[in-house]
Amino acid sequence: MNPVSPLDNVRIVLSHTSHPGNIGATARAMKTMGLSKLYLVNPKRFPDSEADARASNARDILGSAQVCTHLDEAVRDTHLAAALTARPRDLPHPTLSARQAAMALVRQARQQPVALLFGRESAGLTASEISQCQLTVQIPANPAYSSLNLAAAVQIMAYELRMALDESVMHSAARLPELASLHEVEGFHRHLEQIMITSGFLDPKQPKRLMRRMRRLFARTRLEKEEVNILRGLLSAVDVRKPD
């Protein structure tokens, strides 16, 4: 059954938040734009009275927030994830503006859960966290001073998601392909790494850089469920550990 609104299928994920006030302000920003799914990965302090105070009348979102130990838990059953980052990185995922990303997320959210990730106040998301997403998002800002407060960044993206609802109405009748869940994609990446190592193609002592390249390659394709099944079947067929 489709959700009442695609925004019901959008989860906001905050990773390793240091200041509880930012969690409260995030809840308020979400509620003003009709978002309700908040996931917290290892927050430094939560629950906290400062978060309650900053949330104002959005304490219900704090009350239903899901606290996770690992990012995998927060995005496990989502089918499209976007990472907000202000820093240029080597070998980037497809990078969209806030408006473009909101459109992509809302369109997919009409059918499947999606996630929008925000990182630490001081350092943002790690390369490992970004590698679990298919998209990166940048909010256009003054290049001389592009640093946004965490809750302010959430408010901007929440607004863009709200505005994307109207723009996506024309696409609502078009059925999108069934994307693989992030859990299924992670299983494929682990399987791929295992086969690359056992075949001698990948040095197990230095797997990170090459595997980041492979993750970004497949992130650009937004793998469908059937495609993951085909690729894993291929990997099983060429597994050098199998007996003759």
TrEMBL record:
<comment type="similarity">
    <text>Belongs to the class IV-like SAM-binding methyltransferase superfamily. RNA methyltransferase TrmH family.</text>
</comment>
<protein>
    <recommendedName>
        <fullName>tRNA (cytidine/uridine-2'-O-)-methyltransferase TrmJ</fullName>
        <ecNumber>2.1.1.200</ecNumber>
    </recommendedName>
</protein>
<keyword id="KW-0963">Cytoplasm</keyword>
<dbReference type="GO" id="GO:0160206">
    <property type="term" value="F:tRNA (cytidine(32)/uridine(32)-2'-O)-methyltransferase activity"/>
</dbReference>
<dbReference type="InterPro" id="IPR029028">
    <property type="entry name" value="Alpha/beta_knot_MTases"/>
</dbReference>
<comment type="subunit">
    <text>Homodimer.</text>
</comment>
<keyword id="KW-0949">S-adenosyl-L-methionine</keyword>
<dbReference type="InterPro" id="IPR004384">
    <property type="entry name" value="RNA_MeTrfase_TrmJ/LasT"/>
</dbReference>
<dbReference type="InterPro" id="IPR001537">
    <property type="entry name" value="SpoU_MeTrfase"/>
</dbReference>
<keyword id="KW-0489">Methyltransferase</keyword>
<dbReference type="GO" id="GO:0005829">
    <property type="term" value="C:cytosol"/>
</dbReference>
<keyword id="KW-0819">tRNA processing</keyword>
<dbReference type="Pfam" id="PF00588">
    <property type="entry name" value="SpoU_methylase"/>
</dbReference>
<feature type="domain" description="tRNA/rRNA methyltransferase SpoU type">
    <location>
        <begin position="10"/>
        <end position="159"/>
    </location>
</feature>
<dbReference type="GO" id="GO:0106339">
    <property type="term" value="F:tRNA (cytidine(32)-2'-O)-methyltransferase activity"/>
</dbReference>
<comment type="function">
    <text>Catalyzes the formation of 2'O-methylated cytidine (Cm32) or 2'O-methylated uridine (Um32) at position 32 in tRNA.</text>
</comment>
<dbReference type="InterPro" id="IPR029026">
    <property type="entry name" value="tRNA_m1G_MTases_N"/>
</dbReference>
<dbReference type="GO" id="GO:0003723">
    <property type="term" value="F:RNA binding"/>
</dbReference>
<keyword id="KW-0808">Transferase</keyword>
<dbReference type="GO" id="GO:0002128">
    <property type="term" value="P:tRNA nucleoside ribose methylation"/>
</dbReference>
